[in-house]
Design goal:
Elements: E1 9-14, H1 20-34, E2 39-48, E3 55-64, H2 69-79, H3 87-97, H4 101-112
Antiparallel strand pairs: 1-3, 2-3
Helix pairs in contact: 2-3, 3-4
Length: 115
């Protein structure tokens, strides 16, 4: 996204602080937020962590150019959906991140062994 090749960036960390190298990238992205080139949104999701109802917090930071801020909202909605994650969800996530159909096909084939 910093090279203007993708319309959305999503960073996440479970239960704690972002590692040093990631904090460096966040600072680079935040410079673009200060100039108005990117919009930033943060949220914390609670995800199941075990059989006894425990949860873990996932801290998300999303960035998009102002004209693509709808992608942030769509990604938050997608991640918050109830039920199992599907291949359709995987493909939609890839589209929101700016990947082509061919790139999504290759990812799905490598991850799930099919298109």
């Amino acid at each position: 996204m910093l090279r203007r090749e993708k319309p959305l960036a999503v960073f996440s960390e479970v239960d704690g602080d972002f590692v040093a190298i990631l904090r460096r990238y966040l600072r680079m992205f935040d410079r673009h937020v200060k100039t108005g080139e990117f919009v930033k949104r943060e949220l914390v999701e609670s995800i199941p962590a075990g059989p006894q109802g425990s949860h873990r917090d996932v801290h998300l930071i999303l960035y998009a150019p102002p004209e693509d801020v709808w992608r942030i909202d769509a990604m938050i909605e997608l991640r918050g959906k109830l039920g199992a994650w599907t291949l359709t969800d995987e493909r939609k996530e890839g589209m929101l991140l700016g990947y082509t159909d061919a790139e999504n096909d290759a990812w799905i084939a490598s991850r799930y062994g099919r298109k």
